[in-house]
Amino acid sequence: MTDDSKPDATAENKAPQGQSNLWHYQPPLPMEEAPLFVWPPKLVAAGKYMVSNGYLISFLLPYGTLAALTWFFLQPGFDQTVTLSWDWIGLMLLRNALFMAVIAHALHLYLYTFRKQGDEMRYDTRDLEEDNPKFFTRRQTRDNIFWTMVFCVPIWTAYEVLFMWLYANGWAPFYLNPMDHPILFVATFILIPFYQSFLFYFMHRFLHWKPIFPYVHMVHHRNDNTGPWSGMAMHPIEHIVLFSSVFIHLILPSHPMHVLFHMQFHTLTGPTSHAGYEALMFKKSPVFALGSFHHQLHHRFFNCNFGNRYVPCDKWFGTNHDGTRESWLELKRRWKEKKLNAR
Fold this sequence. Notes:
Elements: H1 43-50, H2 53-74, H3 78-81, H4 86-113, H5 140-168, H6 182-207, H7 218-221, H8 236-243, H9 256-273, E1 279-282, E2 285-289, H10 293-301, H11 313-316, H12 325-342
Antiparallel strand pairs: 1-2
Helix pairs in contact: 2-9, 4-5, 4-9, 5-8, 5-9, 6-9
């Protein structure tokens, strides 16, 4: 799908273009980036994108709302967080564990256990693996749950705990009061996904560095065919590296709600973006954007699409695979040429 419209479930996309033998479903090709970082500017297209299903409806509003509800109803107050204590830290850990479990497992049950959507808008119809020694207990989903719940959730919580403790003690230098700066308060929510997208590209490239990849990032890449629990199934070093992007809020004027949004957006979009389906459907119509075919290609081919489609870093730095066979052949030529030049 293009990011400025709802996912397209029309018949022609069930007989995909390009590398058609690899996919059950793929969006119209070549894939286009979000129409924001282009020259000359496309103001109308950019405006449509910002209020589209692919951005506002499926990402900014849901996670912005969740961050607000968390702050007002589920976040221990500064009178508690001023002192590190397992009483309030445990509550935050339980809260985050429930968020992850509900979103990831609800998607898994709906799409894979009860198969309520069948194979409609599913990229790869291979079953999630049930008997492979590379996975914990030989099962892909159990392995993914282990890495997510044992490592992702506690590390995610630790970053939030640190920030709430800093804010409570007045050590976060740029507290943004929404009553004094309402426009900047709202704008920060809008900008976080783009900042996260830009930084993620470089962090992700680092994790593919040869001395690191086999020991760290390979945990995530065991999932060449992904499911909802695959999204945050990573080595703890990877969690620490990726989540460190939240430290921007020690420099950028921010409210604790922005920290919650940043971390929830980072972690809870993992299950949706790795769901293996383009969108959730209602009465045969796609209503909520899920997976990213751009990232699905990365899991299949590894050396492409290190970023995502909010900021076109892959296009800027020559690692973009737009889904067509021609694009993949060109990428392989570049990698081969790079290896020859490195000798």
